[in-house]
Amino acid sequence: MSEQHNHICDFGLHKGEPYTRLSASFLTWMVGTKHQKAHYASAELKRRELAATKQLRRG
Q1: 9, 31, 34, 44: most buried, per Cβ within 10 A?
Q2: DSSP symbols for the chain
Q3: pLDDT by residue (tens digit) across 2-53?
Q4: Which of 23, 17, 43 is nearest to 51 (CA)?
């Protein structure tokens, strides 16, 4: 999942921000509306879940 850190939002109010800095509510909105880049949002939400439960491995 380390590639996720390279993705930058390229639309709307958050244009130019990395997905790692977007709010969970915005990412959830992307997934819920089936936005064309929802896969980035979904991956970032999963990364946060793993980090919060200490299951994320670095490296």
Answers
A1: 44
A2: -GGGGG-B--SGGGTT-BGGGS-HHHHHHHHHTT-TTHHHHHHHHHHHHHHHTT-----
A3: 454 579 999 999 999 999 999 999 999 999 999 999 999 999 999 999 999 9
A4: 43
Answer whether 54's CB lies under 8 Å from 11's CB: no
Instruction: Give the pair of three-digit tokens for residue 42.
Output: 């979904």
The pair of structure tokens assigned to 54 is 């200490």
User: b or e along 23-56 (b: 16 or more beta carbons within 10 Å of the residue's beta carbon)?
Assistant: eeeebeebeeeeeeebebbebbbebeeeeeeeee
Output the CA torsion sign for 26, 28, 7, 51. Answer: positive
State the Cα–Cα distance between residues 24 and 42, nearest whole angstrom. 10
